[in-house]
Design a protein that fits this description.
Structural class: alpha/beta
Helix content: 25-40%
Radius of gyration: 30 Å
Strand order of the largest sheet: 8-7-6-9-10-11-12
Number of helices: 17
CATH architecture of the largest domain: 3-Layer(aba) Sandwich
Shape: elongated
Distance between the termini: 39 Å
Length: 535
Amino acid sequence: MTAPKDGLLRIVVAEHLPEAGWQALHAAPDVEVVGPFPEGAALHTALRDADALILRGATTVDEALLDAAPRLKAVARAGARLENVDMEACTRRGILVLHVPYANVFAVAEHTFGMLLAAVRHVPEGAAAIQRGEFPRHELMGTQLHGKTMGIIGFGRLGRAVAARALAFGLRVLVYDPYIDLSFAHERGVEVLALDELLARCDILSLHTVLTHRTERMLDAAALARLKPGAVLVNCTHAGLLDEAALLDALDSGRVARAALDTVQQEPPAPDHPLLRHPRVLAVPHLNQNTVESQAATGREIVADLLAALRGEDFGRVANLPFDEQQPYRDAAPYLHLAAKLGKLQGQMAGGWIERVEVEVLGEGLSRYVRPIAASLLTGMLRPVDGRAVNWISAPTLAHDQGIVTAQRQDLVSLGDYPNLLACRIAWPGGSRTVAGVLFANGEARLVQFEGYRIDAHPEGEVIVIENEDVPGVIGRVGTMLGDHGININNWRYGRAAHGGRALSFINVDSRVPDDALRALASADEIHSARRVHL
């Protein structure tokens, strides 16, 4: 395997990728793409110099694969599901994880109704009879959808798409989703119920929630026993939501009249799988995303999202970062920049091993960004101790591993004259410090408080932070001493607690201040401390 070309992002494609994805990769001028790879050894070799990996369902991202990819920055799953990606391992290593959960929404929603209609109107049986030369027109009696009640578990984007189509068929729609906004649901013409009541009332049950440890086998024997007798079950999302043995019993007892399954827990299934051989089960080989349009959208979107993340342009589709349509990255980006600057300042000026970090966020709409702001603060503050990259992904985990307690506070500062403000207090054995920053209207980041000092400083570049006595001549002497060492000052901001007391100088300089200059400054009678930081 050849080394990556200088300046290019090496992206390894593990397996099949839709043609639209390949076209987008080859059109990117800053990308070198390799793959696909038919077997694991070749893939591991290619990953030695990889910046990113694109995969589908056949590749497993585990510790062994990640060990083979020391430079890996991102893992991109060309699909909606992430069951073959070890999210925790990626997060601990600071690796972005991306997927495209919405590229196939229309395909899956349409497939759900295709499966439902085929099941309740006996379409497969009719087609098979015709091929055998039979014509059982009057024996295959189905049921219509109009006037029935459909229960939908999960009211995310896919659940909403299915609900909209259900209403168009004249179905009443019941929804179970513990995180749903009731007014949002009512606007869409659906009724929100507890799970038990939904199961008891629905004629048709369709599953569209995510698969987690909480939802795994949520439809077990007890849940199926609460279903309205003769209900039809449709599952075109996750096989793990169902207890397959319990469903088989419910079909045998008649509690479930028909089941339409796009997926089973073991794929491909055994030829004698009892559920798939049941006469009242319609099963297909995981076709929910198999449309030309869905696959093209999957390829285009995963490449676009991956490149945006690798280039630092947008992180809205990163699964292990708290951004989404309601919390877009672009809105948060200026505050994350400010938070990183405050974190760098705190980390470089801490008087010991940091034990606690407290964060305060003030301003309309900013509370929803507390998590990414805290992660950005930690990213600027922490230093790697075991080779893991420190970034938004890994910083919270690294902080926990280093014994740092993080907390949100509401009383760190009293600066009510700013419409938006970030404050951070750190504590170490024997000391603490609080700093605060704001964004001006033009998006410029400013430091407005440093411990007890009000100040208006630029947290950028090379900086000298001096604590001194507020007496005549200090500024002149400091300027002369810096000039004697060839240091040019580009900005000097001054804050003091009271006239004649202690004061703070925050000095932006054009080049790094050498150690002998710092020692000379610190030795002056009026100066209590002189620290060098890079922001």
